[in-house]
Amino acid sequence: MMKVFKNYFSFRADLGEVFRLNCLRIFFLAILLTPGACAEKLVDVNVTIVDQKTALENQILGSYEELGNDVLLLASVRSVDEDGKLKPSTRIPKGKLNALRAMQRQEFNRDDIQEFKKNHVVGEGNDGLLKFFETERTKTDARFKEFATAIVAEENEDRMVILKRIVATNENFSDGDLPKVQKISASLNRDNAKPGEKIQQEDGQWTTR
């Protein structure tokens, strides 16, 4: 239980960092823009694109935060009443329950994922999913490689469950918007990556943060 709260508040802190980066991005864009008729038109286009992207990012972050709150609520609900009798379980829609379970498993796997990133076993792909990389250890330790690929598969499955839930419950998204939501999620993951971690740019090139 303590691990869930610890990781959740760490996640909330990461969200705050992403918001800060988005604000700085817009601020520096405004400074660099020069006056003039042509420049003003370019300013309008660029600011509009940034604003739209930031708005979509904030919607996704808001959905993540809402699910995170639901996970905490689900974990803290008492299963017995004052008389010691079992309380009837709260009925949760299947789609939402699947997303909550996915987020719970993400919390359970978080430390392993972070260790994989640190050792360049995985990187953040431009589709919002983790990508596996061969290392000296994975080449010589078959059990470790099997473990790492299994955890990565679980993480990617959980990410897709959550992203599909976000698309399904957000009025601004349609079923065909999933790839766009994945790209936005990938952008957030790049912004939130720690120094030394592998990240894939939109053009497909892999770099180190």
Please, could you describe this protein's structure?
The protein contains six helices and four strands. It is 69% helix and 6% strand. The protein has one domain. It is mainly alpha-helical and 209 residues long.
What's the average pLDDT? 76
Helix content: 55-70%
Oligomeric state of this protein: single chain
The main β sheet shows up as: 4 strands, mixed
Low-confidence stretches: 1-6, 8-13, 26-35, 37-50
Which outline best applies? globular
| SSE series | HHHEEHHHEE
Give the strand line-up of the largest sheet.
Answer: 2-1-3-4
What's the number of extended β-strand segments? 4
Number of domains: 1
Strand content: 5-15%
Number of helices: 6
Secondary structure class reads mainly alpha
Radius of gyration: 20 Å
Q: What is the distance, rounded to the nearest whole angstrom, between the alpha carbons of the first and last residues?
A: 32 Å
Structural topology:
Elements: H1 2-32, H2 37-76, H3 94-118, E1 122-124, E2 130-132, H4 136-140, H5 142-169, H6 178-192, E3 198-200, E4 206-208
Helix pairs in contact: 1-2, 1-3, 2-3, 2-6, 3-5, 5-6
